Every structure is written in structure tokens, then in C-alpha cells.
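Let us walk through a complete example step by step. Step one is to write down the protein sequence. Step two is to encode the small molecule, glutathione, as a SMILES string so that its atoms and bonds are unambiguous. Step three, shown after the inputs, is the structure prediction itself.
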Amino acid sequence: MQLRFSPTSPFVRKVRITAIEAGLQDQIEHITTDPWSPETDLRQTNPLSKVPCLITDDGTALYDSPVICEYLDSLNAGPKMFPEDPSVRFKILALAAAADGMTDAGILHLVETVRRPKELKWEWWDERQQETMRTALTVLNDAAPSMATTDGPITIAEITAGSGLGWMDLRFKDLNWRTDNPALADWFKKISERPSFKETEPPAA
Ligand SMILES: N[C@@H](CCC(=O)N[C@@H](CS)C(=O)NCC(=O)O)C(=O)O
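Step three: the predicted structure of the complex.
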């Protein structure tokens, strides 16, 4: 398998953690890709031109990260990261969606503050993204006491939340999300010690 990959992407990190937890990391070749480069050929593999994109051994291109992670989990002989029991599964998927949504809003906030020329900045839109980050953080903070940490089985919800929070720390040094979300802060400290998280720590920005 090949993974179109960028070292700072939170969505790529999700896939890498899932691969490690499934014991599949040695089967994946990483192909460094800058999705923002005008020269990239990424769109020929992923029509959305985003990382991550996984090319399976039969040449199928898989995207977005939830699809790639679920594919890796289908090859996983250990405890499932996408639980099968519907009474658990959809709660986990919704929590993972909240974490993905937080990170998506963070990326839009970053684009608005870093990439968009100042004179074109749209305050209303940026405030909306920040509000989404805050409300998603509250959902994760409420769930934190029952989320997996250092040992034992893990689900896609924890993997998505931890990857997103790690990226927010990398990109938004002044965000102070821990102040309003102490349970989540405590959880994040513990999950960051898990070997799959340590092994995939993002490089300094
Ligand atoms: N929903 C996608 C989001 C992926 C994403 O936003 N990737 C960013 C890098 S962190 C990207 O490639 N952006 C390029 C673009 O939006 O054109 C997923 O879960 O895989």
C-alpha cells in the first residue's frame, strides 16, 4: 500500500496511528506530497486533491481519512477501532465526526488568518469556524472521561480527537483550549503517551 502523506496533516496522522494500532505500518510506503503545491499530481490520484490518500495493493485509491481508517481496520486482526455493534458504533462515529469537524474548522480558520490576504479577510466566516472549534471541543470534553487512553483497545474517536488536538497545538499556540476543557486536557496528556501517538508526533511547525 502507498500513502500520499504530509508530515503535519492531522488527517494523515489519524491514518498512521490507525495503521500502527492495526499492526500494518510496515506494509505502507509513505509518499511525501504537498497538497497545496501548484505542481502536485495528487489530483490524478485523489479527485479532491487532499492528503491522505491511500493506494491499496490492487491500485484502488481511497479517500477521505475516515474511509482509509475503516479500510485499515477491515485488515486488522485485533480489536476493532470501528465497533460493529450499532449501539456503540454510531456514538463512536459521531464523536469522531465532531473531532474531524473541529479540525476542518481549524483548517478553515488557519486559511482565513494565514493564507488569505488581510484585505480580503471575512470576519463573520472566521468567527463561525472558531465557534465550531469551541462547540466541538465541548463535546469532546464531555466525552473525555469515558475515552480510551494509554493502554487497551482504542477507537477511531480517540484517534481522530488526539490527532486533531495535536495539530491545534502545532498551529495555534495561543488558543488555550485547555482552560475551558480540563477533562479533555487531562485525557490528551494521557493519550499522547500511547506508543502510536508518540511515534507519529508532528514535527515542530
Ligand atoms: N476530509 C478530509 C480532509 C483532508 C484535508 O483537509 N487535508 C488537507 C491537509 S491537512 C489538504 O490536503 N488540503 C488541500 C486542499 O484542501 O486543497 C479527510 O478526512 O481526509
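Step four is interpretation. The mean pLDDT is 96.
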